[in-house]
Amino acid sequence: MALTGTEGDIINSVARLRQATKDQIRRQVGFSLDYIGFLCRDLLRRGYLSFSDGHYFLAKNGIKTLLEEETSKVDRKLLKEIAGEVAKEISGELKKTVKGIKVPIAISQIRKEEEDREQIKIKTDFELPVEDETLALESNINKIGANLEKEKSDIDRSIELFKKFRKGGKR
Amino acid sequence: MKKAKKEEEAIQALKGELQKGKGVDIGTMFVKCAQKEGDEIIFRSQRNAFFEVEHSDFTKKILDNSKVKYIIKEDKLYVVGDEALQFANMFNKETRRPLSRGVISPTEKEALSMVELLIKSVVGQPSYKGEIVYFSVPGDPLDADFNVLYHIKMVEGFLKTLGYTPKSINEGHAIILSELAEEDFTGFGLSFGGGMVNVCLSFMSVPVLKFSVAKAGDWIDQQVAMAVDETASRVSAIKESTLDLNKVDGLSKAESALSIYYNHLIEYVIENIKQEFTKARRLPRITKPISIILSGGTSLPKGFSDRFRQILDRLKLPVPVGSVRMASQPLRSVAKGALVAASADESKK
Hints:
The complex is a heterodimer.
Chain A: H1 5-17, H2 22-29, H3 33-45, E1 49-52, E2 55-58, H4 60-67, H5 76-97, H6 107-116, E3 138-139, H7 141-144, E4 147-152, H8 156-166
Antiparallel strand pairs in A: 1-2
Helix pairs in contact in A: 2-3
Chain B: H1 2-14, E1 18-26, E2 30-37, E3 40-47, E4 50-53, H2 57-65, E5 70-73, E6 76-80, H3 82-90, E7 99-100, E8 103-104, H4 111-123, E9 131-137, H5 149-161, E10 164-170, H6 171-179, E11 187-192, E12 197-203, E13 206-213, H7 217-228, H8 232-241, H9 253-279, E14 290-295, H10 304-315, E15 321-326, H11 333-348
Parallel strand pairs in B: 1-9, 9-10, 11-14, 14-15
Antiparallel strand pairs in B: 1-2, 2-3, 4-6, 5-6, 7-8, 11-12, 12-13
């Protein structure tokens, strides 16, 4: 059986408060205490709410209703707020209990984020004026010279072929 | 037919004269410049190492007489080049290096002036103002938290100061230009240098995958040195002179350790290639087996390519691999490939 508008409001209210007395729900939803008590008992019977220690909580069907996309009666904004709060709380707890241990993020998530991030291409160029520091040095390197080797050249064909490829041609 | 004739004419026109354009390999171990002169390629090189010795007129005179290269900066005297390694071994100390992990060393205060001097001594003056020079640069490292931009800009700025038009080329890509013309510049170029291993996959001359790892020859030297209680310079000397990776019996302690760390390095590189393949979003479909060219000083020990092939057969790449071979001249291929790019640019002018 689908939820009525007021029943939906009760679910929202309990979700917001996380645990609520009949009076707290009444203040949020309106109507008489008896009527709210009647609706809550009915929701309890149908598995939307649970009851303990004078307080109502969301039960399995109540949570399911909140998660269902098509339920127009549920306040999605509220759901997001609650989810955010719960996430913060869980992360705080984790930090306390597993201090120093990094909570791993799924690799697939990292990859997706990397893919989504657009590569920034640097378009400017900085011309660096570099001084010839060798002018301040005393050396016999030029007098002795570098080590010299020779080989028969076989690169002419490579040069021609490379030019062709760069022009976009083929062999 | 006509096309082939035209191509032959263009090649003939390139012969017999000092040609414009230079290619420079700026590596952690060597700085090498290639230039074409007639039918030959001339390579000028300097070892990228120095060692401080006591500064006195007497030492200076001895070094001059023995033709040992040196640099004097302020009141310090540094032996430079191959002899720096010999001096370091003699004193049981380490050489100092202006480049570390493929880029200008951030911790060596003399790095910049030393690199500039070595570059200047191999490239010389441009044959005309604005001559094109391609210089090799490492790919961004996968396993180290640094960027190569500063290094590139400093070298570029200095070459400009000398009067060149500098352009950078990835080290692995340069190997492909030097060695893979017959295969339409399609394949892998792997440069096992001192500070880095550079990897480039090129398809029809276009680099499609390039990166570096900051474990290479120096890393092997350091690990072996720690394992067998030697200096890294001495380990490097063993590595460069007697190491044979095919040998399994009668290995010395240092040789055994070198063999172990070579294995580790090769596997590390292959696993990184595999990982980059899975990460790459756009790769050409390669159906024909492609070649892998091995190059660089760390690839020089006998048996290196066999060891590489053995490990590759076990680990397998996600593309079909054809031949795995050494570059025709492993210490020259980067400079030669950079020269191919420079000459192509110059002949377009």
